[in-house]
Amino acid sequence: GIAVLPSFIADRDSTLRPLLPAQANFTRTFWMSMPAETKHLARMRAVWEFLRETATSHQAVLLPA
């Protein structure tokens, strides 16, 4: 069958092959859900910064060229 898989998952299985890689272009969007009244709390900002920094530092894995 055909499926869209993240590279960091598909790369683990040598029997999988890319299909139409030039035609497939994906981006990732991350959301953090919280009550509006808590978004300015230091702990919420800390979690968001951690997630942002982690996604940025692992960009090659999350969105390979």
Q: What integer is the average pLDDT?
A: 88
Number of helices: 3
Strand content: under 5%
Report the biggest beta sheet as strand number plus sense, adding barrel if it closes: none
- List low-confidence stretches: none
Rough shape? elongated
Write down the secondary-structure element order.
HHH
What is the number of E strands? 0
**CA gyration radius, whole angstroms:** 16 Å
Give the N-terminus to C-terminus distance in angstroms: 24 Å
- Given helix and strand content, the structural type is mainly alpha
**Overall number of domains:** 1
Measured as a percent range, the helix fraction is 25-40%
Structure overview:
- This protein has 65 residues and is mostly helical.
- The chain has one domain.
- Helix content is 37%, strand content 0%.
- The longest helix is centred in the last third of the chain and has 16 residues.
- It is elongated and about 45 Å long.
- The mean pLDDT is 88.
In summary, what is this structure?
With 65 residues, the protein is an all-alpha fold. It is built from three helices and no strands.
Summarize the helices and strands and which ones pair or pack.
Elements: H1 7-10, H2 42-57, H3 59-62
